[in-house]
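User: I'm preparing a small set of examples for a lab meeting where we compare how different chains pack in three dimensions. I only have the primary sequence for this one, and I'd like the structure in token form so I can line it up with the others. Please keep the answer compact; I'll paste it straight into my notes.
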Amino acid sequence: MSRPLLDAPYIFGLHDPGGEWIMAQAGRRGWILFTEAVGSDPNDDSGRDYRPWSDQEFGAICRINHGYGSMGTIPTPDRYADFAQRVANFVAASPGCRTWVIGNEMNHSQEWPQAGALRAANAPVASPVQPDVASVDGFGHSSASRFSALAPAMAASLAVSPLGAPAGLQPILPQEYVRCFQMCRTAIRALPGHADDLVVVGAVAPWNAETTYPSNPTGSWIRYFTDILNGLGANGCDGIALHTYTHGSDPALITSTATMNPPFQAYYFNFQAYRNFMDAVPAAMRTLPVFITETDQDTPWLDANNGWVQAAYAEINRWNQQPGAQQIRCLLLYRWQRYDAWQIEGKTGVIDGFRAALANDYRWKEPPPSPANYKVGDVLRTLDAINLRAAPGGQIIGVLPAGAQATVRSTPYSMTGGLPFWAVRVLFNGQVRNGWLAQYTLDHVIVAHANLWRCDPPLTSQATSCAHWICSISAASRRAQ
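Assistant: Understood. Below is the structure token output for the 481-residue chain.
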């Protein structure tokens, strides 16, 4: 049965469909990212059906682009309203997905729209333009300008230099992306059945210093990133997309803490760049899910199982296991399909590395349920065995079996050891006993979608309210309750 947000509990995944059979064989159905160019025609109602994947319990992520290349990952500001309407139309016509990323690498000039494309009153609306996938690099993944800030350290190998705004292109400044994103999110969440969808901030290109403005004269990608998040505010988005890579195929680069040359000496030079983004997330937004939607070796994949893939997933798992860490829900290998030099399809060495990584049960930590709003007299029924305690987190009196009834005898709940405990009265071993029951388990690991608690029909006149939620239970964690 698919999860409510059509997501996946594992951190594994691929950019592009086609290789998901590898995850299915391993019994770890992870994520698939689909990238779509939708244009900005507000009368275009077309979409795509993602149910062939989500119905198999793969997590679906759709990255919505206005277009590719000079079409712009988002359009020029005069088209924002039309683009938002087109995005909403696309979402409405695209069952099987509930996670939508708006735009891609907005700080990179390759993703900027043509400045001369400002529409006259009678000009036609933009239609989606697909990249030249028959070329060596139709999506421009190898663009020399993409990692422009690396030029001082990598001039010999990349032969690039930091660039200003190329002629004819309109930079996407943070405040402009914020406005476009807000319009798209509002339009998506206004659709019937999509009020709880995740509308995710597009990934900022690491090591790109092209987008400069008065408060960011060096073009820092981290400042660009935080300016977007601060502009949106704590409740202004539902998730954050990131990209991170290594510059080479050596697995040691995954954990390398080498940093860049001035003025970016505070930033990591390789895969650890993801931590610069994570550390920069405003405190009020550190409960949001994070999706790393692209990772690779920068150069085309080395066709060898040299431990790179395993090291990358182990690193993200280490991050997630830190107490209180903002959870990274996926790390997607770029890319499965043969659209450019980074294709994984046919590279048995990379696939073997992916299989080896999949042998690990790497999951992101599900957020705990919210404490309920029970009232005195509410009657609850346990749906699994659960400890009855003498005090919140205290001595165990006994274990109530599934189907036992408990009446709430006082409120509010008591938060102890990270768990909300409720004071209840139960019939236990033929006697009425007072005790405390935890609302959910300590580890929050979802092993089956089920109600741990459920209000039965009122048994007394005092039982006037009921709370209902999804949470987790596992035999290994019952002792923690």
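A couple of notes for your slides: The chain has nine helices and 15 strands. The chain has two domains: 13-358, 379-480.

User: Perfect, thanks.
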